[in-house]
Amino acid sequence: MAATAISAKSNGIALLPWQRLLFATAVGASFGTGNGLVPMAPPIAVTVGHAVTAALVVALAFTLLERRPPRLPPWLPRWILQVVGVFLAVPIGVLLPHLLSMAIDIHAAHAPPQMTGLAILIGEGLLFGPWIALGAVVRQREVFAREQALAFELERSELARRALDARFRLLQAQVEPHFLFNTLANVQALVDGGSPRASKVLGNLIAYLRAAVPRMRDRSTTLGQELDLVRAYLELMQMRMPDRLVFRLNVGASADTLECPPMTLLTLVENSVRHGIDPSEEGGNIEVDVAVRAGRCGVRVTDNGVGLATHGSGLGTGLATLRERLQLAFDGDVQLRLTEIEPHGVRAELDFPARQAAQ
Amino acid sequence: MSAGRPTGLIADDEPLLRDSFERLLAKAWPELDVVARARNGREAIELFETHRPQVCFLDVQMPGKTGVEAAHHIGRRAHIVFVTAYDTYAVEAFRQGVLDYLVKPVEPPRLAEAVARLQERLRAAQPALNTEALLEQLAASLRTPSTAPLRWLRASVGQTVQLIPAEAIDYLRSDQKYTLVAWRDDAGKAREAVIRLPLKDVGAQLDASQFVQVHRSVVVNLNAIAHITRGANETADVHLKGRDEVLPVSRNYLHLFRQM
Predict the structure, then answer these.
(1) Is B260 in Cβ contact with A6 (below 8 Å)?
(2) How far is CA A325 from CA A162, A201, A222, A248, in A?
(3) Domains of chain B
(4) Which of A335, B30, B88, B225 has its CB 3.0 to 4.6 Å from that of B186, i.e. a possible disulfide?
C-alpha cells in the first residue's frame, strides 16, 4: 500500500505532467494565434512558436518550484515563490525562441514587427502568467484538501474495521473447548458420585456460558454482570483445583451499575488462572479489587502464581485484544498496566471512566 | 496387594477427576490395584519410582511437569495411557503415534476398550507401545511454538517490573549490556524503561514486520517513524512522532528506506 502511494506521488515530480503540458501548449497557442492576427505581425507560425515555447518554459519553472528547493524559510510561502518564478520565467521564455530566430536570420529577427511582437508577448506573459499560476495553486490546494479528506475517511473506516475485528476475535476466543470439557468432566464426576454440589456447579457453568456465548449486540455490560461472571468462573476453577486456588472479591458499593465492556474482568482473571495459578504446583491466591474514586473506576487483579518468568506461554493475545477493545470502548481514556510483584505473581491494574450503564 | 494382581498409577491435577476416574476404572478393571495417585507430573515420576506400577494413566496437562514429560521419564517400564480433555492437537498426536489415550469426560465403553487392550498386552507380556521415539515425537508435537513474536516486554520502570505491550514501543537502543526501551504509556506519554538483555536478543523476538534494525545499536518501530532525512556519506536520520530525539541509520541498513 505504501509503495503505491509513493509511486502515485512520484508522477507529480515528472518534469511536466501531461495535463500541464497540454494546458501550457493551449494557452501559448491561443495567445500566439491572437498575436499573429494583428496587422504588421510576423508570420503566424513564428508568433505561435514563440508563445508556445514561452508558455512551456513558464510552466516548467512553475513545476520545478513546486518541489525545489525542498525546504523554504518559514517567511516564504511556496506559492509566492512560484508566482515570482513565473514572473521571472516570462522574459526568459520569450527570449529563448528569439535566440533561435536570431540564429536563423539575425536581420529579420530584429525587424520592427518582430521586436513589437516580442514586446507584446512579454507584456502578455507578465500580465497573465502570474494570474494563471495563482489559479493553478488554488486548484491544487483544492485537490490536496480533497485527498486529505479521503485519507481521513479511510482512517475512520480503518478504525471502524478494527473495532469490528476486535469484537469478532472476542467472539472466537470465548469458550475454550479444553475448559468446557474439563469442567463438564468435573460435573459428571459430581453427578456420578451423587454429590449435592453438582447442582451448584452446574449453575455456575450455566452462568459462565450465558455470559460467554456470543452476544453481538451487547456492546457493554455492567460491572455487576462482569463480577457475577468472574465469580462463576472462579468458583468453577476452585472446584477443579480446590487445593490450589483461593480467591477474594473486594467490590466497593456503587460499582455494580457502572458500564464495563463485556469480558473485561473475565479476561484479566482468566489470565491470572491460566498463566499464574494453573502452571504452579502449589497454586496461589487471586484477589480482585474494584474501587470507584473521583469519577474513575479502578480494577486490580493480583495473583501470586508463577509470574511471567516463563516465556512463550501464550500470554498476550487475550490481553492485547482486551487492550484494543478497551481503547475503542473508552476512546483511549483507559489505562491497563501489568506489573510483576514480589516474590512472584502478577498485578493487572485497569483504570477507566466510571460511567453509569445505559438502562 | 496380592502377587498376581496388575498394578496401576493415576495422575491428574484435578482431585474430582482423579477420584471419578478411579471409580470408573474399578468398574472396568476390578483386578487392577491402583497403588499410587499423583497430583502433578513430578509426583507421578516420584511415585512411579517408588511403586513401579505396570500401567500408568497420565493426564496430559498438569502443573510443573506435564503428563508427556512424566511419560518420557517412565519410558517403556510401564504401559502408558494418556488422558486429556478435548484437544485436537493432542488427540491427533496420539492417533498418529498409535499410543493409548482417553478423552475426558471419560466414556465407560472407551475405557473398557483401552482396558481390554492393556490386559491383552500384559497377558502376552508384550512390550509397552510407548517407545522413546514415539514419546519424543509426541512431546515435539505438543510443544507450544515459541516462534510467535513477543507481545509484551518485561522491563524495569523505576522500582517495578512492568509489562510493556510491543505496539507501545517506539524504539530500542542498546546501552552496553542493557537495552533502553522508549515507549508510550496508555496516556500517550513518552516513557523509558530498561531491560537486562542485550539488544540482539530482544530484537530477534519482536515482530519483524513492525520492528526494524536501523543501526548496530537501534531497533525502531516503523509505526513510530515520522519521517526520514538523508544525511551526508550514505547515512540518514529517523525522526519520531512526538519525540525530539533523532535516531541514526547506518549505511548497512539504509537500503531499508531506499524505496521511500
Answers:
(1) yes
(2) 9, 31, 16, 26
(3) 7-142 (3.40.50.2300), 152-257 (2.40.50.1020)
(4) A335
